[in-house]
Amino acid sequence: MRPENAPTLLLPPRINDDTRAIESAARDAGYTVVAAPGYRLPLGLVEKNVPVIVYGDPMFGDLAALSLDLALLEPPDYWLPRLEEKWRKRHVSLSTLAGARSVPETAFIKPAADKSFPARVYESAAQLAAVAGDVPDDLPVLVSKPVTWDAEYRVFALAGKVVAASPYYRRGKLVYIETSRKWDAPPGELAEATEFAAEVLAATGDTLPSGVVLDVGLIAGQGWAVVEANPAWASGLYGCAPPYALTVVAASVRARADLTPEETPFARAGIAVEW
User: Fold this and answer.
1) Are 181 and 100 in a shared domain?
2) What's the pLDDT tens digit per position in 192-226?
3) What is the pLDDT of residues 19-38, one digit of tens each?
4) Contacts of 107 (CB under 8 A, 6+ apart)
5) Residue ranges making up the domain that contains 130
6) Which of 128, 144, 160 is a domain's end point?
7) With DSSP H G I counted as helix, E B as strand and the rest as coil, what are the percentages for the chain, rounded to 5?
8) For 15, left (φ over 0), alpha (ψ -120 to 50), or beta?
9) Pairing mode, strands 161-170 and 120-122
C-alpha cells in the first residue's frame, strides 16, 4: 500500500542502469514513479501537492525544476577551491573559461557545474579551444594542478554522514568486474575512503547541502584527498546501494516554496526557456 503523501520520483526519458536502480528502490519505498515522455514536461505529469524528487541529467533536472517550481540543491562552485588545502592536497582555483584559456601551464580544467566540455588535463589554450570553442567565455570553471589518482571513491552523504560508498576508478579506469558484477577494491581501502570522507564532512559542516555526493581518492605519493563534490540528483551510483542513495537524492530536491534559509544558498540557479 502506498504511504500517504509519498513522493513521486520523476525520471528522464533516457533510462540507464542508474535510473533503473533508483526506480526499483523508489518503488520498494512506496514512491510513485513517473518517466517523462520527453524533455518538455506535459501538464498533469505528476500529482499536485505531492513531493516530487528528480533524478537524471542536469538538462532534465533544470527543465523539471522550471516546470514544477523545484529547487535542486548542489555544492557551490567555490566549494572545492575554498576547501582547506589539507583536504585537497593540490591547488584548485575558480575561474572562467576565458581565464582558463590564459593559463600558461598544463592544467586540469573542468566546468564547475555541468559537462559543457570534457573535464581533463589540457596542455595548451589551443587544445582547450578545440573542444570548448562554442562555450561562453563567462562559464565558471575549476582549474587545478594535475595529479595522479591511484584510486577514486564515490560517497553519498546525508546530513553530514556517509550512507553509501563505492570505488569507481583505479588509475583512470573503471573497477567494475563484469563476471562478478562487483566494484573491486583492495581489502580495507573502502573503509579508509569512508573514514576520510566522514572526516571531511565533519570538518566542512554547513558548507554543503544536506544531501550531497562527495568523491574522494588517493593521490599518488600524497594520500587521501577530495576529488570534488557533486549534486546527488544528478550523480551516478557506481556500486552505492540504491536504497541509501535514494534517501540522499530525496534530500537534494525541494519544492522552491519550502526552501529554508539554510538551504537557499545551495539552490541551483533557475533557467529561462523559450519554447
Assistant:
1) no
2) 999 999 999 999 989 999 999 999 999 999 999 99
3) 999 999 999 999 999 999 98
4) 100, 121, 122, 143, 144, 145, 146
5) 91-144
6) 144
7) 30, 30, 40
8) beta
9) unpaired
Of 83, 50, 84, 45, the closest CA to residue 67 belongs to 45
The dihedrals phi and psi of 66, each to the nearest 5 degrees, come to -65, -45
CB 153 within 8 Å of CB 237: no
| Residue 185 included in any domain | yes
Q: Are residues 219 and 185 in the same domain?
A: yes
Place of cell 514536461: 41
Residues 258 and 196 reside in one and the same domain: no
Residues 198 and 245 grouped into a single domain: yes
Q: At 251, is the secondary structure helix, strand, or coil?
A: helix
Say how many domains are in the chain. 3
- If asked whether residues 204 and 226 sit together in one domain, one would say yes
Q: What are phi and psi of 147, to 5 degrees?
A: -135, 165
Q: Measured between alpha carbons, how far is 195 from 172 in angstroms, rounded to an integer?
A: 22
Phi and psi for 238 in degrees, rounded to 5? Answer: 50, -120
Residue 271 lies in a domain: no
DSSP 63-131: HHHHHHTEEEB---TTHHHHS-HHHH-S-EEEEEHHHHTT--S-EEEEESSS-SS--EEESSHHHHHHH
- Is residue 177 assigned to a domain? yes
pLDDT at 275 over 70: no
C-alpha cell at 19: 535510473
Task: Answer yes or no: is 86 within a domain.
Answer: no
Query: How far is residue 271's CA from residue 221's CA, in Å, rounded to a whole number?
Result: 42
Contact 23, 11 (CB under 8 A): yes
Helix (H, G, I), strand (E, B) or coil at 144: strand
Do 131 and 193 lie in one domain? The reply is no
Whether residue 254 contacts residue 170, with contact meaning beta carbons closer than 8 Å, is answered with: no
